[in-house]
Amino acid sequence: MSLAPIARDPSRHAQPVQVPGQSGQQARLHDRRGFPATPMLRKQRLILDRHMVGFVGRGHVGDCPLPRPAYWMVFSQSETSATLSVGTTPGDAELHAAALVVVAAETAIERGFGVALTPGRWYLSSNLRAIAAAITAESGDRPGRALYLRAKGLELVCETVKQLRTAILVPCSGAANLSELETRRLVAARDLIEARLHEALSLNQIARTCGLNRTNLTRGFRLLNGVSVATFIGNARMVHARTLLLTTDLPVATVGFRCGYRSNASFARAFVRHHDVSPISMRAEARG
Question: Which terminal residue of the chain has fewer beta carbons within 10 Å of its beta carbon, N or C?
Fold first, then answer.
C-alpha cells in the first residue's frame, strides 16, 4: 500500500506534543508553541459501509468521524506472529503500528451477527492472514480498486466475527507457559491442520513437519487451544463442511471427502453428532 512520505517541520520548535484534554485517536499533534504540527504518518481510510470504516498502513487514523460505541479490530504483524486484538479502547502505540484496523459499530456487529465480541488478543488463522494481506498489499489506482478493497474489508469483518464466535482463533494468553519458539511451532501445526483437512494427518506427521516431538505437540496444543489435536481436527472439519454445504453445490459425498472422510456414512455420522442435523437436512433448510 503506497503511503504519503513522512512530512517533517523544518522548525526546531516542531516537536509534536499532545494538547491537554485530548487523547487517543482524536488527539491533534501540536508543536511546543501550541500551533498544529504536520502529521508524521496517516493511515489510508477505507469506508466499508455507514457503520464500519477501515484504516490501512502505519500511522494515526486522523480526525475522521467514527462509529460510537465501536469495536476496534487491530490486525498486527511481527517477525514471529500475526495477531488480532479486539476491544473498545486500543492503545496509541498498538494502533499506530498496526498495518490494518477496522472500526465497527457495536450495534452493527451485534445485530448483524447476533453476538457481542469479547475483548482479547488472538493469533490470526491462515485464511484471516490471507485476507488481511490482500488488503494491505493492494496499491495503485487501478479500476475497481476501491470496490475490491471494500469487498475484502467486509469479508475480513465477516470471517473474523465468525471465527471468534466459533472459537477457532487461538488466544495469545494461552501461550503463557510456552516459549516463543514453541508457540510459533504450535501455531504452524494448527495452520497445517487447517490447510490439509482433507488428509488423514497423524500426530507424528504434524509434529515432524512443525519441528516438535509428539509429546510437546500434544501437551502444547492442548495448552494453546484448550482441546486435543484430534478434537480440533474434528471441529475444524465440521466447520469447513458446514461452509461447503451452505455456499456450494457440491454433492454431500464430495463435501465429506474434502473434509477428510473416506465414506459418506462416516461423514454423515460425524456431522449429525456435531450439528444435531444431517448434511442433507441442513442444506435443505438453508435453501428453503
Answer: C
